């Protein structure tokens, strides 16, 4: 296994500016398998110092909870990861303008926020990696869409790909497709959990204990995903193999079709991508007023 002595992230100083659940998913994915040294990772947020202490005691990362510590962590970082909510992004990034050097790499996790808005807020064409990860990064099974601003060197593209590749799979896409990634995989875990909630509810309604319904559901979802990976067959082919003519699965799928499940999923994902664009527009409008 790669560890911090052989990892390309060795010696790279990371600063998580915004230390919430997505930042934690990524730093945990980097620290637990020893891909990055906790002492090279600093974390900061707006006000919640308790949260920083919690991350420090869990992962050994360095909390920056005073203004001096924040400036020092930001100025000494090679990579600054933007991990605040979209509503906080404009103000937070504008506050970075006097602190960042033009050569520092900015990695954004923020839904909707475009590279051009980051440039506008920083007042210069800083190298920016715009990403859309997901929370499965916590266990090294993330899926991250990545796009680069023009100024990101080949070496830094490699660095970003290594960083997100260490916590799952990556897909480089043109920036206008990042919202599609948001729709499919950024928010995707929530759809799968929602489906699982429904499967567990149904199992309980049919008389299973909640524990049995949950265990059967979890293994079914895990097994189904693994089947697609291991057999390299399409989900549709695999579905057909489960579905005997006039059997039980066919009856279930017909019911899903009656409730327009497929169309509901497609509309949900399209709406998710549209919402990301709306959020990006709001940040851009706010940025124009600052
Ligand atoms: N959660 C997910 O599944 C995914 C989230 N994302 C994106 O990741 C980003 C973070 O989401 P998530 O982790 O869920 O959010 P959280 O609310 O868990 O975390 C946000 C963090 O940002 C900090 N923060 C807010 N304002 C500032 C500021 N001005 N300066 C520094 N830190 C600040 C908060 O600190 P404090 O508590 O002190 O206010 C908090 O620690 C979002 O932009 C989201 O779009 C992307 C993909 C998936
Ligand atoms: O719900 C959100 O806005 C964030 C972005 C992707 C997943 N969660």
UniProtKB/TrEMBL annotation:
Its EC number is 1.5.1.2. Its main location: cytoplasm. One of its GO terms (cellular component) is cytoplasm. It comes from the Bacteria. It is an enzyme of class 1 (oxidoreductase). The keyword Kinase does not apply. Pathway: Amino-acid biosynthesis; L-proline biosynthesis; L-proline from L-glutamate 5-semialdehyde: step 1/1. Coiled coil: none annotated. It is found in: Cytoplasm. Residues 14-112 form the Pyrroline-5-carboxylate reductase catalytic N-terminal domain. GO terms for molecular function: pyrroline-5-carboxylate reductase activity. The keyword 4Fe-4S does not apply. GO terms for biological process: L-proline biosynthetic process. InterPro entries: 6-PGluconate_DH-like_C_sf, NAD(P)-bd_dom_sf, P5C_Rdtase_cat_N, P5CR-like_CS, P5CR_dimer, Pyrroline-COOH_reductase. Belongs to the pyrroline-5-carboxylate reductase family. PANTHER family: PYRROLINE-5-CARBOXYLATE REDUCTASE (PTHR11645), PYRROLINE-5-CARBOXYLATE REDUCTASE 1 (PTHR11645:SF49). This is Pyrroline-5-carboxylate reductase.
């Amino acid at each position: 296994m790669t560890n911090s002595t052989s990892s390309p992230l060795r010696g790279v100083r990371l600063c998580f500016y915004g230390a919430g659940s997505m930042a934690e998913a990524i730093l945990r994915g980097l620290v637990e398998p020893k891909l990055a040294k906790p002492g090279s990772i600093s974390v900061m947020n707006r006000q919640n110092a308790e949260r920083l202490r919690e991350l420090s005691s869990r992962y050994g990362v360095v909390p920056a909870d005073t203004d001096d510590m924040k400036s020092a962590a930001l100025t000494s970082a090679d990579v600054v990861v933007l991990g605040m909510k979209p509503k906080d992004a404009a103000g937070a990034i504008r506050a970075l303008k006097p602190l960042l050097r033009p050569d520092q790499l900015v990695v954004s996790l923020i839904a909707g926020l475009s590279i051009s808005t980051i440039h506008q807020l920083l007042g210069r064409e800083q190298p920016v990696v715009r990403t859309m990860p997901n929370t499965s990064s916590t266990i090294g099974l993330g899926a991250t869409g990545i796009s680069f601003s023009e100024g990101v060197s080949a070496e830094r593209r490699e660095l970003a790909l290594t960083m997100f590749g260490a916590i799952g799979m990556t897909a480089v896409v043109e920036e206008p497709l990042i919202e599609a990634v948001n729709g499919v995989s950024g928010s995707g875990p929530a759809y799968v959990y929602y489906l699982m909630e429904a499967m567990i509810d149904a199992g309980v309604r049919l008389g299973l204990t909640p524990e049995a319904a949950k265990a059967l559901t979890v293994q079914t979802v895990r097994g189904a995903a693994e089947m697609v990976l291991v057999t390299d067959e399409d989900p549709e082919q695999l579905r057909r193999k489960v579905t005997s003519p006039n059997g039980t699965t066919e009856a279930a799928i017909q019911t899903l079709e009656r409730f327009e499940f497929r169309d509901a999923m497609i509309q949900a994902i399209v709406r998710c991508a549209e919402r990301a664009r709306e959020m990006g527009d709001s940040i851009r409008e706010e940025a124009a007023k600052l």
